[in-house]
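Team,

Forwarding the record for the chain on the shared tracking sheet. I've put the sequence and predicted structure together so nobody has to dig through attachments.
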Amino acid sequence: MIPVVLAPGLLCDGRLWSAMRPDLLGDIISVDFADDDSIQAMAVRILSEAPLRFVLAGFSMGGMAAMTAAASSPERIAGLV
């Protein structure tokens, strides 16, 4: 099963996904952008914490970081939500 990486929106953290995590199958990784100061830094964090191939889901600011990560390493992204 392909792992899923979750990218939260502005002022959110991994707790955002807590209600849906039990319904997701396989390995789930939630990134934390608290120490990042740009969308590019967030995209780098996603790619550094994610496995070689993964599905990436994000919204709001996390969605912008997800699109940036996908554009820079499309071969690693199995799906983008």
